[in-house]
Structures are given as structure tokens and as C-alpha cells.
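anyone seen this seq b4? input:
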Amino acid sequence: MQKTVSFLELIGGGRIPEVLVGTWIVMALLLVFGYLARATLAAAADPTIPDESITLRSVAEVMVEWVDGFVAGVMDSHHYRELVPFLGSLFVFILASNFFGLIPGIEPPTSFSDLTFALGTICFFYFVYQGFRRNGISYLRSFLGPLLVLSPIMLPIEVADNLFRPFSLGLRLAANMFADHQVLHLFTGLTYLIVPLAFYALASIVCVIQALIFMVLTMSYVKLAQSHEH
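predicted toks r here
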């Protein structure tokens, strides 16, 4: 009699992996936040007038405005706004996943290489898509180097460089978040008084920096893909 194998057995030996559960929770929280912020905006008498107090809408608007301005400053392009939804979603998801690991007893999803390599792979296909979208088939010319005579040497180097980018993105994020979480767990376990607050503050800074670095590197890859000068 043929034995059937369930999906859970394939992905986690009969149980749902911790990184998958954490990712689902973060995604659910972000979806609820986005829905409530959108509902608040739709219910406003005049959407152009900001709320006087701190609300879900005001928090969302500040975040969107900051991401929009940051992408505009880095990309320096008239078409930068078409990149904001992807880059903003990437930053917010990584930031929320990083902060999710600050809850005692919970590992941040971004400390698992499965998730970070998946994010890196998504970014890889995104900047390749942007390269073809902006330059068409001539995007392949960027893999041949500045001089055609050097193309036999530059082609394998450029291909290897592009293929290594998602791996480096994923490895950098996973390694830093794993180390940050281990240091936080180690030092907060030594005392339960004021000292843990300092390490939580430091860990929070690391969470923001790592999300920002991932977004900035992705933007730099997109900018390179859209330009013929690299």
C-alpha cells in the first residue's frame, strides 16, 4: 500500500517550521495594520488634512512619506515612485520581522536563512526585471563590460557577481539578526533590572539598520540594472 506524505512532513518533518509561523504572524499583523490604516483614511472627512493626534493613519502616512523621500534621494530618478511600493513593502516587512524577535522567547524570522535567501531571490528577480524594463534586451550589454574586447573575461565575472547578490543579501541579514538575537538573549538573561533596557535599545537600533541596509542594497542593484554605465 502506497504511503501518502503530507505537506507538513515535507517542509518540517510533520510540524510547521518556526520561521514559517513567525513569517505568517508578521504578515498578518502588517495586513491588519494596512487595512485599518486604509479604513481610517477612507473614513476621514478630508483625506488631505492630517490627523492632529497619533493614529494608525498618521503613523502609516509618516512611514510612506519617509520611504518615498528616501527612495527619491537614493535613486535620483523621475521614475523612482514606481519602485516605492516594492521597496517600502520590503523595508516594512523586514523591520517588522526584526522587531518581532524582540519579544522574549521568540526568534526573529529574519534570523533564519530560509526567509532571508527567499527575500534575496525576490530582489534578484526584481532588479533583473527592472533592468530589462528600462533598457530592453540591451540590458544584457551590461554583462559584457565597458569594452567588447574584454567581454570573454567580463561576462563570467558579471554573471557571478549578479548571482551572488541574493546570497550576500540573505546571508548578511540572517547572520546579523541571529547574532543580535543571541547577544540580546545572553545579556538580558544575566539580570532582570535596568540593564536589559539598554540592550533592547541597542537591539532596536540594529533592527532598523539591518532593514535599512537591505533596502539600500536592493536600491543600488536596481539603479545599476537601470543604468548602462556599470
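The longest helix spans residues 151-188. The chain has seven helices and no strands. kinda curious what u guys think
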